Structure formats: structure tokens, C-alpha cells
Amino acid sequence: MRNHVHAFVGVPGDPEPDTLLRDFKSYGSRALNKTWSKPKSNTWWTESGSKRKKGEHQIVETILYVRDQAYPLEVWLSPLSIELTRTL
Fold first, then answer.
1. Boundaries of domain holding 69
2. Do 72 and 1 contact (CB within 8 A), yes or no?
3. Gap between the Cα atoms of 30 and 62, Å rounded
4. Is 3 part of any domain?
5. Backbone CA torsion sign across 69, 49, 53, 6
6. What is the SS3 assignment for 29?
7. pLDDT digits (tens, 9 = 90+) for 50-81
8. Does any domain span residue 78?
9. What is the pTM of this model?
10. What is the mean pLDDT of residues 31-38?
11. Three-state DSSP class for residue 69
12. 12 domain residue, yes or no
């Protein structure tokens, strides 16, 4: 999957999803721009991105969806994620 990224994160408190997505894109852009030239479109990102909060019952489903993508270039799971999916 060379053309997109999945990031499924848990954060303390209840921050606004719009703020989290904006911050991820901002910090990610800085890191990408240091390594490569800006893309011709002048952005690394699509207009939007999913900002849906997940309920407890959806967490394992989402981890498995990301983990089991076809042809991933890289997958990183936190130790907690691995523990949650071990029983499946």
C-alpha cells in the first residue's frame, strides 16, 4: 500500500478528532518535506480523513482491518494491540 497510510490511535482525554487529524497531517508534512520535495499537488494528503471515534467493540475490528491489509509496506502494532488481537 504505497499510496496511503492508516493510523489508528488512542489518546487520553477526549480531544476533537478534527484537531488530531490536523496535527498528524501537520507534523507528518514537516517530516516528509525534510526528506523529499513537496509533491506537485503541494500537499501529501487528501482533503479529509476518517475522524470517527471507535467504541470499545470496534477497536479490535479496526486493528485487524489495518493489520490485514493486502501488500502492506510496513505494519507496526503497539504491544497492547498485539495483546488484544492474540485471542483471534
1. 17-85
2. yes
3. 27
4. no
5. positive
6. helix
7. 888 888 788 888 888 888 888 888 888 888 88
8. yes
9. 0.71
10. 92
11. coil
12. no
